[in-house]
Amino acid sequence: MVVFGLYLLFSGAWVWGWHFIFVSYAVTVFLASISIRFFERPTAWQVLPVVVLIALMLWSGLDFGNARNERINSFYIAQMQAAAEFVDDRYPDGTVVVVGSSGYFGQSTPDKYVHDSAGLFTPEQVKAKQNDITTHITDVIPWDVFVCHKDKILSDPVSTCLSANLYGRLVGNFGDLWIIENAE
Amino acid sequence: MTERYSGITRLLISYAPIMVSLVFVWNWAQIADDALITHRYVENFLTNGEPYFNSGDRALGLTSPGYFLMLSGISTVIPIAIAYKLIAAIAYLLAGVALVHLFPSQKLSHRLIASVIFAANLHMAYWFFSGLETFFIPLAAVGSLLAIRKGSAALLILSVGLVVIFRPEAWVAVLPLTAVGIYFTRHFDQNHRLRMNRRTAIASITSLALVLGSVSIFIVSKYDNFVPLSLIAKATNNSTLGIDSIAYFSAGSIAPVNLPVPFGYVPGF
């Protein structure tokens, strides 16, 4: 657990919540071993801390899961999926779309060429970023539609989302998502 | 308490909390965004025979080729929306049963309390059912520990060897744990020694080589890159160690027993 923890801290890679499933499991083993010791010859005073621990775990877990569900509903379904359906209806099959998170979006646009801006399916973008970390995917590949995510109100979304040498036209907006069409 | 119940009743009582938790989380946890990336790969593979995110692009963006192949296989029989939950449910049950069996005492009350603690960790259960493959890391870790306890070198070889096709960075967790487990067993528990005869050794190593070889051939023949682009891309976005990353790490570490305030408000200290 220590080695894995150091990896999460020092690897430099993005660390997401799901990486902690191993840590969470190790914590469970630890808590279970302590609880079993309390239950060698259980008295009310020994049962109480275990009951409190279980209540705390349930409360914490429900709180965490509900918050994640809420985030999925409010962002990935209400915005990302809605934007995907908009793009899917408006543009022909084979349209190249650049998007920040490609899961829910890609699910609703099966016939579009979806590129994740992190470069998950775009080796050119990964190579370009290795040379210059600030490189944006819209500078690297030919694109038709860019779904830009900015979590604040933008006075000029097109110029905020695109490099100075690119031209785009704002065609839609779903919450924090700005749908920009290539105007070149 | 032990003598009062038959074997099946003991089994039902021991694992009832895990089953209750399983049913709850099956219906509660929503699928993560990244999981749907794998689903699109699977759907394209099953529909067009192209294991790609975008038709013809030959980029391996999956983090887990092993999980992708497993999900593809099961999704030929049942819908993918159920297939991923089925895999998660089996993994969750295995992880729970393994945890209960990790402890030397198998008294019913002890098994029950271990089972309740496992079931109460809804943070972990949520990630099991989020559609991501990271649950293979604790599964392989506990599999290797059980293998060491039972003295089964074959199970150890398979647990440690196979996990890399499900999650490459799993070795960072599993190898040190295995090394520590073997060291302590050799020095402090003479009754538990890893055992393996020649036939078992050949069978387990051959099985491992066959699986790893098949997956490697699949990757080389279907994709332009052997190392998943997701790993390279995410490593390219270097994050530096700072107070934010330490706070995030701490919050993740205490998540199973985080204070009951909205998640994310407590940095973990």
Structure description:
The complex is a heterodimer of chains A (184) and B (269). Chain A has helices at 2-10, 21-38, 44-90, 103-108, 123-131, 137-140, 157-161; strands at residues 96-99, 113-116, 145-149, 168-174, 177-182. Chain A is α/β, with parallel strands linked by helices. In chain A, strand 4 and strand 5 (177-182) form a beta hairpin. The longest helix of chain A is centred in the middle third of the chain and has 47 residues, at 44-90. Chain A is elongated, with a radius of gyration of 23 Å. The N and C termini of chain A lie far apart (52 Å). In chain A, 41% of the residues are buried. In chain B, helix 1 (7-28) packs parallel to helix 5 (108-120), helix 3 crosses helix 4 and helix 8 packs antiparallel against helix 9. Chain B is globular, with a radius of gyration of 20 Å. The longest helix of chain B is centred in the C-terminal third of the chain and has 25 residues, at 198-222.
Secondary-structure topology with pairs:
The complex is a heterodimer of chains A (184) and B (269).
Chain A: H1 2-10, H2 21-38, H3 44-90, E1 96-99, H4 103-108, E2 113-116, H5 123-131, H6 137-140, E3 145-149, H7 157-161, E4 168-174, E5 177-182
Parallel strand pairs in A: 1-2, 1-3
Antiparallel strand pairs in A: 3-5, 4-5
Chain B: H1 7-28, H2 33-48, H3 65-75, H4 80-102, H5 108-120, H6 122-128, H7 136-150, H8 153-166, H9 170-188, H10 198-222, H11 229-236, H12 243-253
Helix pairs in contact in B: 1-4, 1-5, 2-3, 3-4, 4-5, 4-7, 7-8, 7-9, 8-9, 8-10
Main sheet makeup of chain A: 5 strands, mixed
Q: Shape of chain A, please?
A: elongated
Helix/sheet category of chain A: alpha/beta
Task: Give the terminus-to-terminus CA distance of chain B.
Answer: 41 Å
Tell me the Rg of chain A in angstroms.
Answer: 23 Å
- The proportion of strand residues of chain B reads under 5%
Largest interface: A-B, 77 and 88 residues
Count of alpha/pi helices of chain A: 7
- Give the total of domains of chain B: 2
The residue fraction in helices of chain A comes out at: 40-55%
Estimate percent helicity of chain B: 55-70%
Overall 3D geometry of chain B? globular
